[in-house]
Write a structure and sequence with these properties.
The complex is a heterodimer of chains A (66) and B (308). With 66 residues, chain A is mainly beta. Chain A is built from 1 helix and 5 strands. Chain A is globular and about 40 Å long. Chain A has one domain: Ubiquitin-like (UB roll) (Roll), CATH 3.10.20.30. Chain B is an alpha/beta fold and 308 residues long. Chain B has a single domain, classed as HUPs (Rossmann fold), CATH 3.40.50. Helices cover 46% and strands 12% of the residues of chain B. Chain B is built from 12 helices and 10 strands. In chain B, the strands form 3 sheets. A 6-stranded mixed sheet of chain B has the order 5-4-3-6-8-7, with helices on both faces. Chain B has a two-stranded antiparallel ribbon with strand order 1-2. In chain B, helix 7 crosses helix 10. Chain B is globular and about 60 Å long. The relative contact order of chain B is 0.14. The chains are: A mainly beta (66), B alpha/beta (308). Chains A and B meet through strand 3 and strand 4 of A and helix 9 and helix 10 of B.
C-alpha cells in the first residue's frame, strides 16, 4: 500500500500524502478549513491531526444556502 | 490540539476565539453561550412561548435542541414547500424534522403547501413574476407569512430562527455592497414585535456555521445535508465563500465584521433616516395579517394569481 490517506468531500475522493497534517492536505487541495469539519472514524477531529497511512477522513461541508 | 478548558483532546479549533475544545466542553460551552446571548439581547424569558422555524437543516435543529436543553418552552414549525428537484428535498427534510421531534417528544406544527393551499413553491414561483427566474424570493415571502400566521394563531410570544453568524455576515456584506440602508438599519438579532408581527430572534447569531455543524454531529442529530437545490450557487453562498477566504487569512474577520456593525449602530453611526423607511402596516382583508400595502397582501395576491 502506498503511503497515502484518502480525503472525501461530497462523494469526491482525494488521495493525499500520509504523515502530514489534515491542514497541509487541505491547503494542497485548496479546500478552506473554514468551510468544513473533519471526521475520522465517525469522530470529529481538528485539522492539526496527522494523516495515517490508509485511513479515510470525511470532510463535512458546513456552508448552507437559502 | 488540546482543549483549553480541561487539557484533553480538542475536537474543534475556533481560531476566532483562539480556543480549542473537547467534545464535552464544546457541548457545554455552546448552549451556555447561547443562553448568555439570549439574556444579553433580551430575546425571550423562560415564561414565554417560543416557536422555532425548523427546516430540517443543521442550524434550526441545533437551535431547537439547545432551547430544549436550556429548558425553554419551544415548539417547532416546519413548512413543507414541495421542493423535489430529483432529490426529494422537502419530503426528506420533513422526515428528519419529524424524527427529531418524535424522538424528543416535542410539539411540531406542519404547514403543507399542497394540502393547505393546493400548490407547491416551484409551481407558485413559476406562475408569478416575483419567482419566475428563481423561487427564493417567493420562498422567503411564503415562509415569513406562514411563520407569522402560526405564531399569531397559536399565541406564541416569539419566533426564533436558526440564522448563524455566517448567514448574518453574508447578509450584511450583501447589504453593504449595495449600501442598502433600509436593510442595514433593520438588521439585528432581535426584531421587536409590532402591529401584528411577532417578535423575531436569532439566538445563534454569534456562532460560525462550522460550530453548528460540529454541534449537530457531536449531538448525533441527523439533518438534511444537501443544500436546497434552488440555493446552489446563490449569491449568499458566494458571499459566504468570500468571507471564509478572509477568515482563513484573518481569524475573527467574520465575527468582527458583524459584531462591530452592531456596536457601531448602537453608538449611533447610522443616523436616523430622513424619510420613513419602515412603512405603516395595514391589515390584509383576505388573511388578516399585517401588510405594508393598503390592500391585499403580497402573499394573498400571489395565491390569487396562481388560482388558489
Amino acid at each position: 500500500m502506498e503511503n497515502t490517506a484518502t480525503i472525501v468531500l461530497r462523494n469526491q475522493k482525494y488521495e493525499v500524502k500520509a504523515g502530514s497534517t489534515i491542514l497541509a492536505a487541505l491547503n494542497k487541495l485548496e479546500i478552506l478549513p473554514e468551510s468544513i469539519i473533519c471526521v475520522r472514524d465517525g469522530e470529529l477531529v481538528t485539522e492539526d491531526v496527522i494523516l495515517r497511512k490508509g485511513e479515510i477522513i470525511k470532510l463535512v461541508s458546513v456552508i448552507s444556502g437559502g | 490540539m488540546k482543549c483549553k478548558k480541561c487539557g484533553g483532546k480538542a475536537v474543534i479549533n475556533m481560531r476566532q476565539h483562539n480556543m480549542g475544545l473537547c467534545k464535552d466542553d464544546f457541548l457545554q460551552w455552546l448552549p451556555e453561550q447561547t443562553q448568555k446571548f439570549i439574556e444579553k439581547y433580551k430575546m425571550f424569558t423562560p415564561d414565554e412561548k417560543i416557536l422555532v422555524a425548523v427546516s430540517g437543516g443543521k442550524d434550526s435543529l441545533a437551535l431547537w435542541d439547545m432551547l430544549n436543553i436550556l429548558g425553554y418552552k419551544a415548539d417547532g414549525l416546519y413548512i413543507a414547500l414541495g421542493i423535489d428537484e430529483g432529490i426529494s428535498y422537502s419530503s426528506e427534510s420533513q422526515r428528519l424534522t419529524e424524527e427529531f421531534a418524535n424522538a424528543r417528544d416535542l410539539n411540531l406544527h406542519i404547514v403543507n403547501m399542497a394540502s393547505d393551499y393546493g400548490t407547491d413553491l416551484p409551481t407558485l414561483a413559476k406562475e408569478t413574476r416575483r419567482g419566475r427566474d428563481k423561487p427564493c424570493s417567493s420562498c422567503g415571502l411564503v415562509k415569513r407569512h406562514e411563520m407569522n400566521r402560526i405564531a399569531r394563531d397559536f399565541g406564541y410570544d416569539v419566533l426564533a430562527t436558526g440564522h448563524n453568524l455566517d448567514d448574518e455576515a453574508a447578509t450584511l456584506f450583501s447589504n453593504t455592497l449595495q449600501w442598502n440602508g433600509d436593510y442595514l438599519i433593520r438588521q439585528h438579532p432581535v426584531l421587536a414585535e409590532r402591529d401584528g408581527l411577532a417578535r423575531k430572534v436569532k439566538p445563534l447569531f454569534r456562532f460560525y456555521e462550522r460550530e453548528m455543524a460540529a454541534y449537530t454531529l457531536l449531538r448525533g442529530i441527523e439533518y438534511i445535508y444537501d443544500e436546497c437545490p434552488f440555493a446552489v450557487g446563490s449569491t449568499s453562498t458566494q458571499y459566504k465563500e468570500i468571507l471564509n477566504q478572509l477568515e482563513n487569512e484573518h481569524p475573527g474577520a467574520k465575527i468582527h465584521f458583524f459584531t462591530k456593525f452592531l456596536s457601531a449602530k448602537k453608538k449611533g453611526l447610522f443616523a436616523e433616516p430622513t424619510t420613513k423607511i419602515v412603512p405603516e402596516l395595514h391589515i390584509c382583508p383576505t388573511c388578516g395579517q399585517p401588510t405594508s400595502g393598503q390592500d391585499v397582501c403580497t402573499f394573498c395576491r400571489m395565491m390569487e394569481k396562481s388560482g388558489q
